[in-house]
From TrEMBL:
Belongs to the class-III pyridoxal-phosphate-dependent aminotransferase family. HemL subfamily. It catalyses: (S)-4-amino-5-oxopentanoate = 5-aminolevulinate. Its EC number is 5.4.3.8. PROSITE patterns: AA_TRANSFER_CLASS_3. GO terms for molecular function: glutamate-1-semialdehyde 2,1-aminomutase activity. Keywords: Cytoplasm, Isomerase, Porphyrin biosynthesis, Pyridoxal phosphate. It holds the Pfam family Aminotran_3. It is found in: Cytoplasm. This is Glutamate-1-semialdehyde 2,1-aminomutase. Homodimer. Pathway: Porphyrin-containing compound metabolism; protoporphyrin-IX biosynthesis; 5-aminolevulinate from L-glutamyl-tRNA(Glu): step 2/2. The lineage of its organism: Bacteria, Pseudomonadati, Pseudomonadota, Betaproteobacteria, Nitrosomonadales. SUPFAM superfamilies: PLP-dependent transferases (SSF53383). Its main location: cytoplasm.
Length: 426
């Protein structure tokens, strides 16, 4: 038995499902999850010594690749001065200055320790600020696992929420409205009926938790206009897209100014950091100034913030995001060509350093369209690629990530592997 398998069997006796976060368990694709031991740049090595090209990047944070020298040095130097104070530090001010500079809609910002905390806190703040209870999210968007956000739509224009997890009281889920992504007519109808009861709309401005789905410009514009008209706060959840699709995130890419923004992943460079921020008049509602409570023992942790600052430092190099986007496009273009050459139905697209792969004729525009992709073909593709030493997200419903450390040779090797795997799928 391989060490991976041994570790998984032992882990299952002590850790529910053998993992500390569900999608790691390969539940969607089947098989034994890979236990990693080491990473460097674009490469990973598992407990059996097998090498992989990594397209998960810890689900987004590792935009510079693994064990990047400056990030590790910043972590080591900061750790030597203590791991935590539970009191303010100059590093947190540096981070606040940098975030508000790079994402100008964020006039003020508060640091937390995960994306879940960021979105949960932003929702509470929006409800406190507006004195309204209802929130709107979109089908297929994931915003962390706070109770109010673990709700997805049934199909149809307007659905009062049913919890999508046990343990979420229906009374709470009923405050969460859901609509299909990119459906402007449904959005307009909902706002005409209930707009003035909705505290906030939260969305992934490029959806990356139902594979990758791009927003239409009309959808984003309608959101901004309707929210402004009805006094509803527009929250861009940029936990995934922040600093990845552009230096200023999706809001810079699409030219839309949200009222609040949530961040995570890249701003911690691989250590736990999240953030939420936006309009100063809204942020003034937060404790200790205002009536909305929010706190954290390790919030703004110096070591995590140092890793994030060292990461953000490098993203500011002119041309960084153009280079990252070009690499990612080269990957998706190559995969589409390889599939076409052997007659496999496949499409792919990228936005900055994130990408979507679909076993369907066209790239999907909604959760319903994502669900029509051939999941069995994806699962076979995933395992074929894994055998060839390419580590993709173990689910057909996740976006993929490229880092700046991925080389031309990595991309070529990946496309060559895919060519073989596609051929075996026919
Ligand atoms: N929002 C989005 C858009 C995410 O992609 C994620 C995590 N994948 C979260 C929120 C939750 O972040 P975390 O896992 O750090 O709690």
């Amino acid at each position: 038995m391989s060490r991976n398998q041994q570790l998984f069997e032992q882990s299952q006796t002590l850790i529910p499902g053998g993992v500390n976060s569900p999608v790691r368990a390969f539940g969607s694709v089947g098989g034994t999850p890979v236990f990693f031991k080491r990473g460097l740049g674009s490469r990973l090595w598992d407990e059996d010594g097998q090498e992989y090209i990594d397209y998960v990047g810890s689900w987004g944070p590792m935009i510079l690749g693994h064990a990047q020298t400056d990030v590790i040095a910043a972590v080591q130097a900061t750790a030597a001065n203590s791991l935590s104070f539970g009191a303010p530090t100059a590093l947190e001010l540096d981070m606040a200055q940098l975030i508000t500079h790079l994402v100008p809609s964020m006039e003020q910002v508060r640091l937390v320790s995960s994306g879940t905390e960021a979105t949960m806190s932003a929702i509470r703040l929006a409800r406190g600020f507006t004195s309204r209870s209802k929130i709107l999210k979109f089908e297929g968007c994931y915003h962390g696992h706070a109770d109010s956000l673990l709700v997805k739509a049934g199909s149809g224009a307007l659905t009062f929420g049913q919890p999508s997890s046990a343990g979420v009281p229906p009374e709470l889920a009923a405050h969460t409205l859901t609509l299909p992504y990119n459906d402007v007519a449904a959005l307009e109808q909902l706002f005409s009926e209930l707009g003035e009861q909705i505290a906030c709309v939260i969305l992934e401005p490029v959806a990356g938790n139902m594979n990758l789905v791009n927003p239409s410009p009309a959808f984003l514009n309608a959101l901004r206009t309707l929210c402004t008209q009805s006094g509803t706060l527009l929250i861009f959840d940029e936990v995934m897209t922040g600093f990845r699709v552009a230096l200023g995130g999706a809001q810079q890419l699409f030219g839309i100014k949200p009222d609040l923004t949530t961040l995570g992943k890249v701003i911690g460079g691989g250590l736990p950091v999240g953030a939420f921020g936006g309009r100063a008049d809204v942020m003034a509602f937060l404790a200790p100034l205002g009536p909305v409570y929010q706190a954290g023992t390790l919030s703004g942790n110096p070591v995590a913030v140092a890793a994030g600052l060292a990461t953000l430092q490098q993203l500011q190099r002119p041309g960084f995001h153009d280079e990252l986007a070009a690499k990612t496009r080269q990957l998706t273009d190559g995969l589409v060509q390889a599939a076409r050459d052997v007659g496999v139905t496949f499409s792919a697209q990228s936005v900055g350093g994130m990408f979507g792969l679909y076993f369907s004729e066209h790239c999907p525009n909604s959760f319903a369209e994502v669900m029509q992709c051939d999941k069995a073909a994806f699962n076979r593709f995933f395992h074929g690629m894994l055998e060839q030493g390419v580590y993709l997200a173990p689910s057909a419903f996740e976006a993929g990530f490229v880092s700046i450390a991925h080389s031309e040779a990595d991309i070529d090797q990946t496309i060559a592997a895919a060519r073989q795997v596609f051929a075996s799928l026919r």
